[in-house]
Amino acid sequence: MEISRRTFLKLSGLGLLGLLGAPVIDVLAKTDRARVARAPGALTAKRWALVVDMRKCWENGKGTCRDCILACHREHNVPDIPEEKEQVRWIWTEPYENAFPEQGHQIGAALSGKPFLVLCNHCSDPPCVRVCPTRATFKREDGIVMMDYHRCIGCRYCMAACPYGARSFNFTDPRPFINSVNPAYPTRERGVVEKCNFCEERLAAGSPPACAAACRYGALVFGDLEDPGSAVREILRTRYTIRRKPELGTRPNIYYVVG
Amino acid sequence: MYDSGKILAGLAIFAMLITFPVWYHLGKATPPPEPDLDTPAIAQLAQKECVEPTDYMRASHMELLKQWRDWVVRDGKRIYVGQDGKQYVMSLEDTCLKCHSNKARFCDQCHNYVRVQPNCWNCHVVPEEGGR
Ligand code: SF4
Ligand code: SF4
């Protein structure tokens, strides 16, 4: 059979389309069919925030209570690495001067040297998100700044960009440094960056963050900043609060009651 | 021709060497994998079916898991509605491995056979290898 150039091109085009089209259509059919949803009891908010009442913490905890830190680190399999440079931290304490370097003169000597609970601020304008080349770190609609460890290439731009030192890098395999592994939560691996995730996995299951739940003195209050009736808004209305490094414009969502 | 004997002998040795893996394994086929479905959780299922039909799972579980990963981590959605309308929590530890608690006798069987080493287990914790 004679076949014209035109027909040949048409036919081979069709053939190619078939080859390319098959998997595409298959995938579409699958995603179309599958439906996904949020768990019915999940806690949701427009913008999550945490208020830490440092006075309650100092008065009741007497500086030695570490319930919140232990709860968080146990929940998320944060390793306990002796080598200081390789340590991984999600929530820890810093002396006032380190946590609030520009605010010393505003509040006076009373706070000097006091330990402050610090963690990722889940900034409203997070520089860590802006610099990540793979979008491994991203901001969710509810304000949580997330890490997708599957995408992290370990370039550490985010660590350089975060003005709060809230991120840790896994220099070694963390598994051997976890005393008792929580099987419900993944560990991390060597070469990825990690940080506090506002317990998004607990929120999804209807529970408040582990740190807030673990505090016996109610010093950590978690809630929706956009909800005028929320407990966090009530505290912000009635107490004097400060945020870390406000001059940088990252707009942190962690507030500290200091007076 | 000069040295044609040597050249031919050299060629023959060369041919033998490069085909070595083929004839060395002739007749000794690696036994095909036999994934083991015998776990307490599976034994209790009235209808032994995964979140999707077996054929689909066999061919595409990796695609499905990748989608689960993105839905959970990036979209914050954790409930998957299967073709049969049943709801499942998208979790490697709490859903997949609850049934397939015998990772070594289920997952590893095929992964070893086809020599793929999924890096899932670098972070996701394998619950105590249970089984029978
Ligand atoms: S505190 Fe640091 S890591 Fe957390 S959102 Fe802000 S810039 Fe990012
Ligand atoms: S280290 Fe990971 S999260 Fe940080 S910027 Fe690089 S890829 Fe993104």
Radius of gyration of chain A: 24 Å
Overall spatial form of chain B: elongated
What is the percentage of strand-forming residues of chain A?
A: 15-25%
Main sheet attributes: strand count, strand direction, barrel closure of chain B: 2 strands, antiparallel
For the residues shown, what is the average pLDDT of chain B?
A: 88
Largest interface: A-B, 30 and 27 residues
Strand content of chain B: under 5%
Structure explained in plain terms:
Chain A has helices at 5-33, 54-61, 67-75, 96-99, 104-107, 127-131, 157-161, 200-204, 210-214, 231-238; strands spanning 35-37, 48-53, 91-95, 115-119, 137-139, 145-147, 168-169, 193-194, 220-224, 241-242, 254-257. In chain A, 32% of the residues lie in helices and 15% in strands. The model of chain A is unreliable at 21-29 (pLDDT under 50). In chain A, the strands form four sheets. Chain A has a four-stranded mixed β-sheet with strand order 9-2-11-10. Chain A has a two-stranded antiparallel ribbon with strand order 3-4. A two-stranded antiparallel ribbon of chain A has the order 5-6. Chain A has 259 residues and is α+β, with helices and mostly antiparallel strands. The model of chain B has no long low-confidence stretch (mean pLDDT 88). Chain B starts with a helix and ends in a 19-residue tail after the last helix. Chain B has 132 residues and is mostly helical. Chain B has helices at 4-18, 20-24, 40-43, 54-73, 92-99, 107-113; strands at 79-81, 87-89. The A-B interface holds A 27, 30-31, 33-39, 42, 77, 138, 140, 142, 146, 148-150, 181-189, 200, 204 and B 60, 63, 67, 69, 71, 73-83, 87, 89-90, 93-94, 119, 122-125, 127. The complex binds iron/sulfur cluster (SF4) (2 copies).
